[in-house]
Amino acid sequence: MSQAARAIIIEDGKILVMYRNKYGSDYYTLVGGRVNDGETTEQALVREVMEETGLQVISARPVFIEDHPAPYNAQVIFLCDIGPHTNVKIQDSSEEGVLNYLGANVHQPQWVALNTFAKLPFRTPQLQAAIITALQKGFPADPQQL
Predict the structure, then answer these.
(1) What's the whole-model pTM score?
(2) In this structure, what DSSP letter does residue 141 have?
(3) pLDDT tens readout for residues 79-134
(4) 3-state secondary structure of 120
(5) CA distances from 106 to 25, 121, 136 (A)
(6) Which whole-number Å values give the CA distances from 146 to 10, 68, 129, in the listed order?
(7) CA distance 132 to 73
(8) Alpha-carbon span 142 to 58, nearest angstrom
(9) In CATH, what number is assigned to the domain containing residue 136?
(10) Which domain holds residue 21?
(11) Omega before 125 cis (within 30°)?
(12) What is the H or E stretch that residue 76 is in?
């Protein structure tokens, strides 16, 4: 069974999301992606965040587990702290960087104000709702199944 690891990164009143245009469909999701063979979800999280943003994850804890259609089947969503940085940019050598270059499938990391997050066309509404609730009431201490 395939899995994905995704990051909730919040900084200065903003949340980091990934704008996607996939086969003409515009939506937002969290930064992250597939767990490769031989990787833990934590290792995949660190790799995916670096590839998609250039950011270094310095700590992460799982807060949500979301059932998801194939190819992932399940996504583990982590609340992350990141190291000091200047900007956020997809790394040119990453899969997303290559797809962007080819114009086949757009990926664009964006900081979005927390007060506008609820208005985004988010890929998985149940995850978006859980994040909105957690922003108001606090993130769960143990991973919550969505």
Answers:
(1) 0.90
(2) S
(3) 999 999 888 887 767 777 666 566 667 788 999 999 999 999 998 999 999 999 99
(4) coil
(5) 10, 16, 31
(6) 20, 10, 10
(7) 23
(8) 19
(9) 3.90.79.10
(10) 3-145
(11) no
(12) strand 74-82
